[in-house]
Amino acid sequence: MLFNSTVFLIFFPLVFVLYWSFHKSIKIQNVLLLIASYVFYGWWDWRFLFLIAFSSILDYYLGLAIHQSEKHKKRYLQVSIFANLGLLAIFKYFNFFIDSWIDLWNMFGYEMSHSTLQIILPVGISFFTFQTMSYSIDIYRGNLKPTNDFVVFATFVSLFPQLVAGPIERASNLIPQIAHKRRWSHERFQNGLFQIVVGFFRKVVVADSIGSLVDSIYNNPEIHNSSTIAMAVFLYSFQIYFDFSGYSDIAIGTAKLLGFDFKRNFNLPYFSSSITEFWRRWHISLSSWLRDYLYIPLGGNRNGILMQYRNLFLTMLLGGLWHGSSWNFVIWGAIHGILLGIEKRFGWIPNRYKFLNNVVVFTMVTLIWIFFRALSLEDSGLILGKLFSNGYAMPYLGDTTIFATTVYGLILAISFDIFLFKRDHQLEQFGSTLKAPLYIGLVTFIIINTLLFYSSASNFIYFQF
């Protein structure tokens, strides 16, 4: 079920009314949330429910076993990690590794043929496996006590606002909120509703209008001139940002309406003045997960500068692979890892040139996005080649109405981000700072604009991960 689908616009109000009508019983609320989450997830393919149920049952009992056992706790943790990574390996990477192995042999002149399995990638598998795996790791480290309530744990794994594309919530933050009574808060409702409508605007008006133009160019880069390619590369930075941050806004806002406080997932990343700062602001739940459960266990910044470079590189390399089974993602992550190492060694432009820092970082991130978006390594090379060629002429703008919508939406969305940045506001708490007339006026304006460009057909970019 998509947030921007007609079905969800019926589904959530029904859940919301039922949920708060049982405000006196936390157990009924949790059962209702669990059922609603399974309906939400099963809407794509009911068979995937067995996968999420298996992950929930396994890690629930392994979490208890890790906590209760002294002699075998490490073995139980290994089972949890092996099972979760095994799910990813089978459903997400099996064909990738087989294809890469065959291609490697073919490079040396050994012709090999194969037939790969037709495996459907379950939506959100990268997110909920990381979530359950971190639960077991935190218990093993002594940072968390396991819950004895299976419904609470199963709800933590499957809670529908963040199930398919995050934020990747930590058990230490979310399980106590599920286990304890939620109270209605007018302030939380104001903030949540405002963040939801902003998220829909970012997705529907901005990201989708950009996407229709960008997709047509990236899907056929060989037929476009350098100006058109440069425009698509520039616009994709905003498409992926407003698409994913829009999803996160809807997820966090929806959770607020149900009484939950999710962690912030985006913090105006394109205002970063270094690559390090960018990763502190972009997809925060994933970057912090990689830091705590991969970078630090690898050794972090201990054991010398060379080991730190290695750890940064491996973390970003695997972070790139997390996004998908493609060498494009591996290269994308590797480049970020190299740049982070260079930053650690040589520093960055002096702070007095902060605006220049922002421009340089945005330009670098935008160029690296080419590997993330291009359909193949060959297309990546073609696009980069055209960017640095002399084939600049009038760019292809596509449908003029869509292009006008793109410009209109971008101006409004970027202006709002600049306002938040300059005033040091957080969107998560912004709604409740507005007086009633301004709040109603802004929400009405955003909703009207969103409805004008609404389409229930478009998917979210990060659903493929």
Pattern of helices and strands: HHHHHHHHHHHHHHHHHH
- Counting DSSP E segments of at least 2 residues, the number of strands comes to 0
Report on the biggest sheet: none
Gyration radius from CA atoms, angstroms: 23 Å
Structural class: mainly alpha
How many structurally independent domains? 2
Q: Tell me the number of helical segments per DSSP (H or I, 4 or more residues long).
A: 18
Distance between the termini: 16 Å
- What percentage of the residues does DSSP assign to strands (E)? under 5%
**Helix share of residues?**
over 70%
Shape: globular
Mean pLDDT level: 88
SSE layout and pairing:
Blueprint (H helix, E strand, L loop, with lengths): L5 H16 L4 H17 L5 H21 L4 H35 L17 H17 L8 H9 L12 H9 L6 H33 L7 H32 L17 H7 L2 H15 L6 H19 L3 H20 L7 H20 L3 H11 L12 H24 L3 H4 L5 H17 L13
Helix pairs in contact: 1-2, 2-6, 3-4, 3-5, 3-6, 4-5, 6-7, 8-9, 8-16, 8-18, 9-14, 11-12, 12-13, 13-14, 14-15
Can you describe what's shown?
By secondary structure, this protein is mostly helical. It has 2 domains: 6-183, no CATH class; 187-273 and 349-464, no CATH class. The chain is built from 18 helices and no strands. The chain has helices at residues 6-21, 26-42, 48-68, 73-107, 125-141, 150-158, 171-179, 186-218, 226-257, 275-281, 284-298, 305-323, 327-346, 354-373, 377-387, 400-423, 427-430, 436-452. Helix 4 crosses helix 5 (125-141), helix 8 packs parallel to helix 18 (436-452) and helix 12 packs antiparallel against helix 13. The longest helix has 35 residues, at 73-107. The protein is globular, with a radius of gyration of 23 Å. The two termini are 16 Å apart. The mean pLDDT is 88.
